[in-house]
């Protein structure tokens, strides 16, 4: 069964599966320089086989209810990835992570996709808290939680190792009651 979240008339989020491996590989290959600036995993993903292993692990985490990873499709063309990570069913929290093909930046796709993910997280997954983390220098990524009404809580100092250096991360959060009061 293919799990999908309809964002709007052109954007669909589709649960990641093995048939996405080749396209994910090609997408990362052409966006490698763009993506590696902020994402620590990019340099380790060099072959289609790497993506098949990643997808296998992602599917296992989905089965274990600790992750829901989706590809972002615009008119059936894959342009990026979004998902819930570190799903904590006891504390009813999760983090959203995302990346997008460089040519699709600035079109509101991630913001709209995050809205759909947030709705899904609070309704279907019954989360109470959703986080987004972004490097303090990654202004484009920070704009997403700000636009969506998240609260910037603080900084995780040297929270991620990217390009052979530690980077500080802002932590943004949104509570279910805040989201519902704005709807």
From TrEMBL:
GO terms for molecular function: protein N-terminal-serine acetyltransferase activity; protein-N-terminal-alanine acetyltransferase activity. It comes from the Bacteria. GO terms for cellular component: cytoplasm. SUPFAM superfamilies: Acyl-CoA N-acyltransferases (Nat). Residues 23-177 form the N-acetyltransferase domain. This is N-acetyltransferase domain-containing protein. The lineage of its organism: Bacteria, Pseudomonadati, Bacteroidota, Chitinophagia, Chitinophagales.
